[in-house]
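Give me structure tokens for this 159-residue protein.
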Amino acid sequence: MLVETYKRWLYEVWGKGDEAAARELVHEDLIDHNPLPGQPPGREGDLWAARAVRKAFPDLRFVLDVAFEQDDLVTGRWTMTGTHTGPFDLLGGLPATGRPITMSGQEIFRARDGQFVEVWHAEDIGALQRALDLEPPKVMLHLAARISARRYRRSQGHS
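Here you go.
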């Protein structure tokens, strides 16, 4: 039962952008334990993220790799393919690169009364960045690490 609900969420809500299906499957007060910066709360946050991904990758396709359920929980792992032909607002409005991508992700949903009420998720952003050729030069990573360490030391009262 919950695996079928998960499949509908993946293919209808995220794959097709069906917001009526989202209203049926996702509780309006969905608790997202891994919200993105700027993500609205509840069902609207899930739709907000789905819209942003579909805008950036309008030809996206999902394949469900595995899904299973236990009690009130369902988990699934998927692979998404698509072409980056629109702006990607979740990465700071990144302009289209025209590059094809393949990335994976996974969720654990808790359900109550036939709707998803809670979610934990993880997406392979590293694979997405590599597919878009967005890996920063090592010198930039080293500089960012030094700045991060300095900020952390200051926040801990060290100079």
